[in-house]
Amino acid sequence: MGLLIMLPSCVLYDPELVGMDAGRDAGMCTTRRPDPRPTNTDGDDVAEVAFGLRQVNLNQGSEWESIGYDLDGLCTGSPDYVSECIVRGPRERDGMEGIDNVFGRGLYPLIDVAVPGLEEMAVAAQEEGRGMPVLRVRQWNGTPNDPQVEISIAQAVFGTSLPGSAGMPPEINIISTTEWELPDGMPVPLPVWDGDDFLWLRTDAFLGGNPDDPFIIDRTAYIVDNTFVARLPDRIDIIFPTDDIGVLVRLTNAVATGRLTADGLALDPLVVAGRWRVSDLLSTAQNIGLCRGSDLFRALELQLANIADVLSMQPDPGAPQVDCDAVSIGVTFVGTRAVIAGVTPGLPLSDLCAVGDAGVPDAGSDAGVDAGVDAGQDAGDDAG
To answer: Which of 276, 335, 366, 367 is a good FRET partner for 7, with 20 to 30 A between their CA atoms?
Structure first.
């Protein structure tokens, strides 16, 4: 067991200690991390299950402090605001139980001003089964505690409520990455999220398009007290496209946990938490129309430099402090049972800053730059 190191305003826990710890008192605090792996004997496996992840919560408001996990083993707060790296901007407290979630606290308010309605667009696409993450569970014994399961994540291209037959998915004519129809040319019914919808996943989420070889997978995941716990591979591409905009997410030190509802038909909530390197975040800005060289891009770059609160790679104990180079993130989804129908090519991310007919990049609109910077700063001030 690792040593418990007490600091004036926080408690640093050994990374192997992942449970809920002692209560806050006289400078001590809890740290929210996934519960540890159960020690019971595994049993026979049931059939695989899958969940379409919907209703992503990006615009979190004051909820940010309860979304995510403690990523750095520190409960940062007054008076010394201990951190694993040097924060260049105003020092801010962690959320409840040491939760690290600068994305919800300070970053998304800026993005929401620069790209109004991003959350609404994402949620609308997910309700139609487009671009949504899909969590797949294999080798589960079907009980509330399983010391080893296999969990993978891919993205859906589309889905339907149309029933299949003889255990097979319905027949769909796939015309392109954005067009599909029934054999008689009629539109494909949208999912209704009753647990029986069929989902087609992106081919590029798997090696060689093989559904049995996903890129995002944890073969040593587990379930404890009805909560699935999976670690995500570092900096693997997670694509969230809609018709017009999208985001390419690359996280490190990331975890996904999902609480199974009593009826077994949903994960509520499904939490994804991790570290998002500033350079990776800036590299996907063009996918939402924030173009390098524009005032909006420079405002985002400045804000990220000021709010970065963690390192992209968790430091070794005793390593010298350097500037923070990543933002902590915590988001939630609601996972609803669905059936995986197969794979098909998905819509690529759009580069909204590509060179236009005039031979120069479309730098996007700079409207709301000042409002965006103020929104991000005000969010951080309120949180402190």
So the answer is: 276
